[in-house]
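Lecture notes, unit on protein representations.

Consider one protein chain, 58 amino acids long.
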Amino acid sequence: MDVLIIGGGSAGLRAAIEAHDAGVNVLLISKSKRGNPHTVMARGSINAALGTMDPKDN
């Protein structure tokens, strides 16, 4: 592994794509379930308080 990216939102995914395209091995980790990062739930540039997966995250 050459690059570790923490966070599966839009910025983390974009960074992973760029790093992969540059020819490096990438590991991306996220506490969100796959396909359900908070960026996706903040549609229309509206940020809201979102539930977390673990009560300790609050």
